[in-house]
Amino acid sequence: MSFNPADLNGVLPALILAGGAMLLLTSEVFLRTADPDRRYQAWVAAAVAAAGLWAAVAQFGDPALPLFSGAAVSDAFARVIAAVVCAALLLSCVVAFSYLEVLRATRGEFYALALFSASGMCLLAQATDLIVIFISLEVMSLSVYALCAYLRRGKRPAEAAFKYFILGSFASAIFLYGAALAFGASGSTRLADVAAASRTGGAGTLLLASAALLASGFAFKVAAVPFHMWVPDVYDGAPAPVTGFMAAGVKAAAFATLVRILVTGYGDTAAGAHGWRGVIVLLAYLTMFAGNLLAVPQRSVKRMLAYSSIAHAGYLLVAVAAMGTTAPRADATEALLFYLAAYGATVIGAFAVVALIERKLALSGLGDDLSSWAGLSERHPALAAAMSLFMVSLAGIPPTAGFMAKLTVFRSAIEADLVPLAVFGVITSVAGLYYYLRVVVYVYMVPEAKPGAIEGGRLLSAGLAIAGCALIVLWMGVQPGTFASIAQTAATAFVR
Amino acid sequence: MSWLESHLLTVVIFLPVAGAVLVALLPRGEGAQHKGIAFLFSLLTFLASIPLWISFHPGAARYAFEQKSEWAPALGFSYHVGLDGVALLLFLLTTFLGPIVTLSSWKYIEVRVKEYSLALLLLETAMLGTLASLDLVLFYVFWEAMLVPMYLLIGVWGSERRIYAAVKFFLFTFIGSVLMLLAIFWLWSNSGPPGHRTFDYVALIDQGALPPAKQTWLFLAFALAFAIKVPMWPLHTWLPDAHTEAPAAGSIILAGVMLKMGTYGFIRYAMPLFPHAANQFAPAIGVLGVVGIVYGSFMCMAQTDLKRLIAYSSVAHLGFVMLGLAALTAEAANGAVLQMVNHGISTGGLFLLVGYLYERTHTRELSAYGGLAKVAPALTAAFVVITLSSIGLPGTNGFVGEFLVLIGTFTAKDLGTWSIRGAEFSKGMTLSVLAATGVVLGAVYMLWMVQRVFFGPERKAASHGVADLSVREWFTVAPLILAIVWIGFQPQPLLDAIKRPVDDFVQRVSRPEKVISPRPGGASSGEQPPAPDAPRIILPQRAPMAKPPAELDK
Fold it and tell me: Can you tell me the distance from the alpha carbon of A442 to that of A307, in angstroms, rounded to the nearest whole number?
């Protein structure tokens, strides 16, 4: 195995992010005062995220390149995921800036950890070797565990991080076991070799077992039912800007890897082409059903969004299932990418608004409940409008990104002959509408119980991020063609 | 052709959005300027839509003012708008009601005026877009976009149980439309080989209908969405709540335009796209229409709430429309379309006046009213005129529509017969006779309501001294009365305008076997190996008649 320095160019976004993280960590050494001004870190992190975004976008048109003798790949699919991750990071940094400043929780590690996790995500989307997948998975996960526990006050962040860590490690172990079985069956950890082994049909049972274990590991990361138990507590306990980043970034990277493993590694097993499709369909049914149903009784907006993220994982699984056909599955890949981007923009915006409410509650010592959203439109009309826009987008109503995302996903499901799954999906989305609308009800229709504006200032930077998300959501809803054609190009990565 | 001429329709559709942007940019303030801008832009929209009527030549082209441009080629849909006669009438009805609505709520809406003006303007664009779309995705986008502003109108500015009503309204309509969305995808996926599929309505219509076996489920998915919106009995339960709780402006839009979206959906989409299934289900639709007429009328008599009463009268009136569409004769379909417009004007007018009453008395209870004629004679006169139009008195608009529906249904031979105990009953005749009782019942409940509200002894509301119509209010009522009389005496221009689309509709649905055609690329998607092919051309055969869903007790 030879090392070709030119290959580093292929992982440029991840390199930039990791480099930025180290730069931030080193810079801590030079801070001498007792209570140093750490505002520069947010700006550096944002600049690094923007650079990563630029690197991903600049390489977009390049042809697909295998890197490091096949351990990773730089293709348009990975570049789109990297762009989504970097954009999510950029927006989340801006949100986190105001949040952390107001709660006086600026310490050195936050932005560095965020950058590390993002570099792990970018690499995850590129990896085509089980070892590389595992390493990038851990880079991403460990940083995110730490970010969840970042606010040290109170029990809930610690509980969230602990839960996430224990269950996450368990999932990693399952993944590792699957990788070991795959190695045993094919003699290699490269996905291409695994695919070759499965095509010849030797060691069929072992390969199927490895596929099941690898998929289970990532089903945990994407929060598919029944691997979803950690989601509500973790989403609820983590600081809101982190939750938003997690929902957008981790989901995008984990789905990218799941697809990479299933389609590249187990595209045609001896059990028939895409023997995994049935399992994914079942997971999609369960996830859409449980996610939407469990979100209905939630009174805490954060928990509601946690369950809604499970439900959205279900819709994304529909796209994954639609990829598992013998016919060209480019439209399903396109749908997956479109959905990930649309969901990312929406959910970061929603959690940015949640962050503002959360810091108001944290300053006044109240619990998170829908009633604290009452009358938001009277005091902060723009904020209320933005939150309603995000809710409408999550519910999948035009003219928003969420609608176009649902359109692409369900259309690809119809194309792939998954009509019952699509019907079930849209019916569960009606339940979804109910709980999203409830937020709008409180924001607009229930009068304020205890008047109080959001204090602590720094509304401008948070507002900037929220406005950015809102613009993306509207733009993807009104002019979906631009991003769709990008996703279309990227979707060719899997078409043979 | 100048730019404006070729883009006139688009300009009219999006003018309200321009107004909304302007409103959004203004500071919150007192609100008068927001109302002013909303009124100005809805008036401008109406004025800009007048040239559409003037330069419309019935029969010149299938769709006038057509414009097609790329929207999202990567996703397969385009921006394609155009109007046929039916859409044009409803389009003009919408722009006509726009300024009336904004003007009518000038005094009543005092809180969150900015949001209110925004919602009204965005709603208008969504409604206009729904009517003008010729691309299924574009249609769906506008169709769903109507929901959010209407939901806010009911939920924010409504009366006591507004939240319940708003959520119910949203959920009901959403359930219907998501299944329609899937049906649209299915239609797309069967419209040609990969790479040549289309969401374009005109292309889909010209392609000919799907094989009959495939039509049933797709028709039901479309029909459910539209039947909820109409609303057809038994899916109407959201309507009385929504109407009662909505502010007057919301009720006017809801009754005036939005309900018509359901019937318009039937005549434009559900029935012509799936003519075979529509033909089979026509008697069932007719029966449901008649049930709606009779049930709605009886419910009206039992109401104690003024707005609820008018809401149920909408159920009855739209039953007439559905019956007219189901009869599959040119007269009945003409009547149905006319009735859509009439209902918009007269029921819109009733809600307008009830809104004025509510502004003055803050009650909708019928028992609180009585003897208003003495204190507010002008308001009474206007109310009586609109009531008579709603009943369908000759000389008003309501008469023409209902009469055509009844006569068209009476002569409908294509519907077949029911045989009960050996005796054959023509379905058309039976339905029209039953529907005619609705006309009588309509007169009963409407006149009874007028008597209880305006005449008789003075009760609480009247004794408080109700002011008569102000100048501003006259400006909103007078155009409606003019329209009532004008259509009542001169329905012919309207009938001329809708002749071609209605004839096309009737022909297509009453003889569905003629439009089933072999499709380029086949009905099965192109990537599958060609199945051992059944002959693509379905031999002409008469559609078997569906059994009526319920035998009528006779």
Answer: 19
